[in-house]
Design a protein that fits this description.
Blueprint lengths: L4 H16 L10 H14 L4 H5 L5 H8 L8
């Protein structure tokens, strides 16, 4: 069974909303926000930049966006 992209997004939002009920996070969390959080934490913990490139970002974007957030990239 193949899921449409809109159904996948709907399911992700539903899971996020359900899981955030018991947390202290007060802002709206989206799959996009999780993607950036994962990238930031991965890079900060020493993951190679090539790993983040697999997610579809170019090297210039990675350094422009994540360098201020991840001192290791400086």
């Amino acid at each position: 069974m193949e899921l449409s992209s809109s159904l996948v997004v709907f399911i992700l939002y539903a899971l996020l909303d359900k899981s955030l009920v018991s947390t202290v996070i007060q802002r709206k969390v989206s799959p996009h926000w999780l993607r950036h959080s994962h990238a930031s934490h991965s890079l900060d913990l020493g993951a190679p930049v090539q790993l983040v490139r697999v997610w579809g970002w170019g090297i210039a974007y990675i350094f422009a966006y994540y360098q201020p957030l991840c001192p290791r990239l400086a």
